[in-house]
Amino acid sequence: MLIAELERSQLRGNDMAGSDLVLAELRHTVRADAQQVPRIGDAARLFFVPLEPFLVEAPADHKRIGRIARISLEPIWSWIGRDLMPAETKALGDDINRALAAADKTKADQLARALQDRAIMRMRDALAAVGSEEKAQRRLNIQVGSPRATDDVATVLHVLEIRDALADLSRRLPNHVRAFERDVIEQTKAHFDAATSAKAIESNTARKADIVRYGLIVLMNRLAAPWQLIRLATRVAESDVAARVAETPYAVAVTIVLGEMEATAAELRAEFKAGRPVGSMLKELHDSARGLRTEMDLSVDTAWSRQLAAIRSDISNMLKPEVDAAPGLVRRLLRPRPAKEIRPGSTLDNIDVDEAEARVAFVAACRNYAGELAFSEVTVRAYSELTQYLDTGTRVLVDTLRHAGDADRPFRQSQIDAAVRFCRTLFGTEYADLMAKAADVAVHSAAGERKPLSA
Q1: Is 286 helix (H, G, I), strand (E, B) or coil?
Q2: What are the CA-CA distances from residue 127 to residues 133, 306, 375 (Å)?
Q3: CB of 286 within 8 A of CB of 373?
Q4: What's the gap between Cα 242 and its chain centre?
Q5: Residue of 24, 60, 22, 51 whose CA lies nearest to 39
Q6: CA atoms within 13 A on the CB side of 195
Q7: Cβ pair 340, 333 in contact under 8 A
Q8: Is the torsion defined by CA of 105, 111, 113, 119 positive or negative?
Q9: Where are the alpha helices (DSSP H) in 221-302?
C-alpha cells in the first residue's frame, strides 16, 4: 500500500524528499516476499501522469472499463521503448531526466508532452494493424507482456488524445461530492456539455464518447457513493427506463457502475478467503445494488438487469455457505463437555476462537445487507441460531464453571472468555460485560464453597 501511494504521489508530480530511497527499500522487502511490484522511472511517471485517475490496484487481467492496472504500466512502457519508438523514447527520456535533475519541471513537462504526442501516432498505427483479429491481438498481448494489452494500449491512447479536455473537465468538477443531488447533477451536466461541445471535439463522435467515458470515471472517483454516477445518465435520459437510458451517450455510466460492482465482488472473495474484514465491501455492494434497483427500472429483461442479477447471485452463492457454517463453529467451541473429555489445564485454541469471532461479526454484518444481495433467508436463520444459542448456552457455561475442578477450570474459563467475545460482537458491550461479571461471581462463589470443605 505504501509503495502504491508513493508511486501515485510521484505520478502526480508531488515528489517527496527521499522517496526514491524509501521505494528502493520497500521494493527490496517486497521482493524478499516474492511479490511483484512494477518499477518505472521518472520519464515514465511523467508520461503516464494523465492516466493517474484511471489506475487501479488490480490484477493485470481485470475487466473494468476505462481502467488500467498499475502493474501494467511497466510492460507498456517497456513495449513503447523497445518496439514502438525506441529512439524517441531513449532521447526524450534522457532529456526529461536531465530536466528533472536540473529541477526544471516546466521543461520536463513539455518534453513529456512531446513524447506523448509521438506515442499517440505510433499507438494508433499499432492498434490499426491489429484491428479486431484475435490472432493479432494475442500477438500484441505477448509482445507487450500483458494479458489485456490491446485494451490497455487503447486506454492509454484514448486518454492521451483527450488529455487536455480531461484536465479542463477535472478542474471544473467538484473535488468531493457527498451527495450527487439535483443541483450538483445539473452543474456537472453543464460541465460535460461544455467539454464535449468544444470546437476541437464537436465533430469527432469518438472523441466525445471518450470524454464522456473517462470523464465519468473521474467524476465517480470523487463521489462519496460511486453508484450515484447513474443519476447523471437518468437525468440526461429524463427517464429511469433502462431502454431510454441506453439510448443516451451517458449509458456507459451504468456499465461502469456494474463493472465496479463486479470488481468489488471479486475483491470481496479474495479478502474473505484471507480472513480479513469485509463489512465495508458488503455495504458498498449492498448500496450499489439498492441504488441501481431504486434509481432505474430494471424489471424488464435487459443486459444490465441480467448483469446485476448475475452479480447478486455470485455474491449469494459465495457467502451463503460461510454464513450457514457460523452457528456450527460456535457450537463446537462452546459445547459443554464432561470433565473426562477435557485434558487437564487445556484451553480453547486462540486461532479457532479468532475465526469464530470473525464469523459471528460477519453474520452480524450480513444481517444488514443480505436482502439486496439475495441471501437474507440463510442469514436470518444463522443469526437467529447464534442469538438463541449464546443467550441460553452461556448460562450453562457459567454453571459448569461454578462446579469446575482444578483440572477442567482453565478450559471452561476459556469457553466463557470466548462466549463473552462473541456476545460483545452480537449483543454489544453491555451484555458482554454482564456475562463476564456473572462468570466472575461463579468463580468466586465456587472458591468460597471450597474453603469450608478444606477446613
Answers
A1: helix
A2: 11, 32, 44
A3: yes
A4: 27
A5: 24
A6: 28
A7: no
A8: negative
A9: 230-237, 242-246, 252-273, 279-295
For 298-313, how does the pLDDT look when each residue is reduced to its tens digit (9 = 90+)? 988 999 999 999 999 9
Q: Is the pLDDT of residue 365 over 60?
A: yes
Rounded CA-CA distance 376/290 in Å is 14
Q: Name the grid cell of 429.
A: 458491550
| Terminal Cα-to-Cα distance of the chain (whole angstroms) | 63
Rounded-to-integer distance, Cα 92 and Cα 88, Å: 6
Residue type, 226: P
Reduced to 3 states (helix: H, G, I; strand: E, B; else coil), residue 297 is: strand
If you count them, how many residues does the chain have? Answer: 455
Grid cell for residue 306:
441480467
Report in angstroms the alpha-carbon separations of 106 from 46, 50, 118, 267, 443.
Answer: 11, 16, 19, 40, 74
3-state helix, strand, coil in the chain (%, to 5): 75, 0, 20
Supply the DSSP symbol for 300: S
Q: What are phi and psi of 177, to 5 degrees?
A: -120, 110
| CA dist list (Å): 410 to 339, 344, 353, 398 | 12, 8, 15, 13
Q: Report CA-CA distances (Å) from 38 to 4, 8, 18, 301, 342.
A: 10, 12, 19, 42, 53
Cell of 135: 490472432
In tens, the pLDDT along 255-282 reads: 999 999 999 998 888 887 777 778 888 9
Would you say the C-alpha torsion 28, 34, 35, 37 has a positive or negative sign? positive
Query: Quick one: which of 219, 310, 207, 293 has its CA closest to 256?
Result: 219
In this structure, are residues 330 and 422 in contact, taking their beta carbons and an 8 Å threshold? yes
The number of beta carbons lying within 10 Å of the beta carbon of residue 280 is: 12
CB count, 10 Å around CB of 440?
A: 13
Instruction: Please report, for residues 325, 348, 441, 442, the alpha-carbon distance to residue 416 in angstroms, rounded to integers and kept in the order given.
Output: 21, 10, 13, 11
| Range 114-117, long-range pairs (CB < 8 A, 24+ positions) | 115/43, 115/47, 115/88, 115/89, 116/47, 116/50, 116/160, 116/163
DSSP-derived 3-state class of residue 55: strand
Are 122 and 83 in contact, with CB atoms under 8 Å apart?
no
DSSP 173: S
Tens digits of residue pLDDT in 413-447: 999 999 999 999 999 999 889 888 888 887 777 65
